[in-house]
Each structure stands twice: as structure tokens, then as C-alpha cells.
Amino acid sequence: MAGPQEDQKFCLQEVLDTFKLCLSEKKDIYLEHYVAGWRGLDAVNKINILVTLLHGENGSQYVTVQSMVKYELDNDLVDLTKRGSHPESGCRTLLRLHRALRWLELFLERLRTSGEDSKTSVMCSEAYNESLSQHHPWVVRKAAGMAFCVLPGRPAFLEVMNVGPPERVVAMLGEAVPLISEVYQITEELYAQQNLLDLP
């Protein structure tokens, strides 16, 4: 498998900085920064849908996750019970990223607290089974399981974070995980209030 292009190196610091910018003082989540956080994590298709909405004619309605949810629900722009005329609504697209954020949070927390000999493939798989797997059909779960098997060991994985020595990565994960967790919780509560957690 080819490695990532040099100019697209993953950097944990960038992801951390972006998620720091996500929350306003009133705990609104800025969609622009949320999307930028995922850019560092390479979720291109979902990002592009949200960027298009952000820069579209109703972009002012998409400044925060909260304003997006209100706008789309008020204007019947969300398929609530079955796939229909809004397969790429902001609410549905963000829900997919939201579920993945939970996996990321669980995985990074395992990475932070694990020992040097721990297998990232196991951590990744466990985090996946606790989060995303329940939303995926069997064939996707199988493919994911195979992909996790080729992950490098913990020392090599920490190096890929492009932050520095392992203890620096662990310290930064200590900062990143609570931030990601807070963004996740705020979104989870908002979606739960509006019955959006099971959008088709």
C-alpha cells in the first residue's frame, strides 16, 4: 500500500488546534472548524458536501451546527424516516462524521493510555466495535477489520502523528481527547433532542 503524499502529512497538532476553534463561548460548534478538523483526518466526500453548503446561497444558515440543524428542520430539508429528496442534507452528512468522531475519541484515548507493546490494530478495532460498527453493514465491518490489521505498532503510529517524541504525543492526546469528547457530546445532545440520531 502506498504511503500518504508528503504534502498531506497528518499532524495531530493541526487537528487539535482546529477542534479547539470549534466551540464558541456559548458552546455553539462552528461548522467551518469542524469540517477543517476532519480535513486533517481525510474524510473528503463528507467534507465537500458541508463546504458546499457553507459557501452556498444559504451559507449564513450553516455557520454553526446548531444553526444548520434549526434551518434544515424548519425548511424540511432533512429526510427523517427514509431516504428521499435530501440524501446529502447537512444534518445527515454531519451525523456520519459525528459517529466517526466517537470512534476517533475512543481510539485516541486508548492510544494515550496504552503501553509501548500495545497493538494499534486491536485498539482501533475495539474502538470501532464500540462505535461505528453498529451503523455499518457486515461487508463494511469485514473490510474495516482487515484494514485495521495492517496498522503499524504503537511506536511507529505515534511517529506518524508528526508531533515529536512519544511523551509529547501522549501529552497532546491528553489535550485533544477531552476537546473531541466535548464537541461530540454537544452534537450528540442536540441530535438526540431533535430525534436525528438515526437518520436514514
From TrEMBL:
It is found in: Cell membrane; Cytoplasm, Cytosol; Endosome membrane; Golgi apparatus, trans-Golgi network membrane. Coiled coil: none annotated. Residues 42-162 form the Glycolipid transfer protein domain. GO terms for cellular component: cytosol; endosome membrane; Golgi apparatus; nuclear outer membrane; plasma membrane. GO terms for biological process: negative regulation of interleukin-1 beta production. InterPro entries: GLTP_sf, Glycolipid_transfer_prot_dom. Pfam families: GLTP. The keyword Membrane applies. Keywords: Cell membrane, Cytoplasm, Endosome, Golgi apparatus, Lipid transport, Lipid-binding, Membrane, Nucleus, Transport. It catalyses: N-(9Z-octadecenoyl)-sphing-4-enine-1-phosphate(in) = N-(9Z-octadecenoyl)-sphing-4-enine-1-phosphate(out); N-(hexadecanoyl)-sphing-4-enine-1-phosphate(in) = N-(hexadecanoyl)-sphing-4-enine-1-phosphate(out). It is a peripheral membrane protein. GO terms for molecular function: ceramide 1-phosphate binding; ceramide 1-phosphate transfer activity. Belongs to the GLTP family. This is Ceramide-1-phosphate transfer protein. It comes from Etheostoma spectabile (orangethroat darter).
